[in-house]
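Ticket closed. Logging final result for DUF4395 domain-containing protein.
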Amino acid sequence: MAVTPAAVPPRVGALIEGYQGPVIDERAVRVAAGLLLTLGLVAATAALAFGTARPLQMFGMFFLLDVLTRLLVSDRLSITLALGRLASRSHSPRWVGAPQKAFAWWLAVGIATTSCIALGSGAIPLQGALALCGVCFTLLALEAIFGWCAGCHLHRRLSRHPTHHCADRSCNL
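Final structure:
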């Protein structure tokens, strides 16, 4: 029996009837962003308190593992997204386009990889690492608290393909 492309679920998101392309639950994504933000702020606080980058390195590795799992294996296996789905299960899903979320997560992988390499090699002092992490924390806070995804906004501006199902409905403008 041949497998048709429609039978293969996407790695990021799900195919939901009535939506064009794969979508993902915005509520679960926001909870996951909040969890990552909380863990990151705890790691940054510990790094400042103890004067070592070790907590940030550990957080960075967890962050990369979680986000790369979403992108390369399946978003259903991401620890933070699983917890996000669990926490938001009593609410009806708010479906948003998965391609723009994946784009945003690839940007996050780039920032986190740069931070991890810089920290691991000793190329930048702790304050520089905290500044890089601050960029990531700001983006996580914008997503978790305000529901604004910088990567989704960039995707809408840079993609050759039309963006569908934006969280703020701005792709319909």
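The longest strand covers residues 23-25. No further action required.
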